[in-house]
Amino acid sequence: MEKKGDALVVVAIDFGTTYSGYAYSFRAEYEKDHTKVYSNSDWKSGDGLATTKTPTVILFSEDKQFCKFGYEAEQKYNTLLEEEEADGWRYFRRFKMRLFRGEEKILERTRVDKITKNLMIEDEQGKPMSALVVFAESIRYLKDQFLQNTQVQGLKFDPNNDIHWVLTVPAIWTDRAKQFMREAAKQAGIPDDMLTLAYEPEAAALYCKELTVQKKEGAESSSLSSFEPGQQFLVLDCGGGTVDVTAYQVQNDGDLRELQRPTGGPWGGTYVDNQYTTFLKELFGADIWSEYSKENPEDVLEIQRRFEAKKKSVNASADDQTTISFPASLFKNIRLLRIVHLLKKALKNQNLQKR
């Protein structure tokens, strides 16, 4: 039997585009109850709230050493920006989809961003760094968080033999992108023979099969039950970076049969964020917004945070308008930048007339 089958605990790392976390299940408990799964729901946000996941952001020091991850990285970087000490530091956010964009460029027969161990990605300030290091340190942090938290609970595991690690990946990723994630996990200290890559929608489907209940129709009184053999269901996994779609049928033995190959695309929540940024560029002017972003990165970070918070509170049945507040510096600086741009344009026209 392979080592994974003898593992005492299975730890699943959900490495997301916008948020990440982990969950785990003890083998002995799972054999009795498949729904006995634990997760860390104690990530502390900047406003003191406890959440089930932490932002997928990572901060490296001036000498490219790992510094912070998640909420702590956001807070540290914001402080550096406010104190004008961020130069040289490297702050990465929403970098997971760089692998998908790299694949798109490969398909277009370009040599840019080819997914290899030498792939470089740029941080928020445009400074390059090894993608493998960025991904590996992110995975290492989540792995170490599990080990530290369970140790506090009085549990101690040998990460090389006692733990079966599972790392989730989007269904639309190619073998090249998946191999890159496996290399990153290996560099993070996870043994290759104790690692399994799982498609995100497939993991969601297994969860649905175990936990989802449905309302029975046609009965005099409503009742709830789990999926039965022969029944089919579709999973629409809307994440931060991708939307994955899969369909399954429950077999007589309880297993799932895939009805259609997983499909999807880069249409996750970050697509909405990008459209919002495009709207702001159109509203204030692309050149002015670009200049404002360079001169006021801490305020742009705050604008992104406020939009993210507002996005979570919107629901389909809401009829009221949604109001988003902006930092006071935005309108003050935008007004000043517009005046500067108008003066530059006037001077340019004046010089052209003299010629």
TrEMBL record:
Q: Which SUPFAM superfamilies match?
A: Actin-like ATPase domain
Q: Show the taxonomic lineage.
A: Eukaryota, Metazoa, Spiralia, Lophotrochozoa, Mollusca
Tell me if Repeat is a UniProt keyword of this record: no
Which family does this protein fall into?
Answer: Belongs to the heat shock protein 70 family.
- UniProt xrefs under Pfam families: HSP70
Organism (species) = Mytilus edulis (Blue mussel)
UniProt protein name: Heat shock 70 kDa protein 12B
Keywords for this protein: ATP-binding, Nucleotide-binding
Q: Which GO terms describe its molecular function?
A: ATP binding; ATP-dependent protein folding chaperone
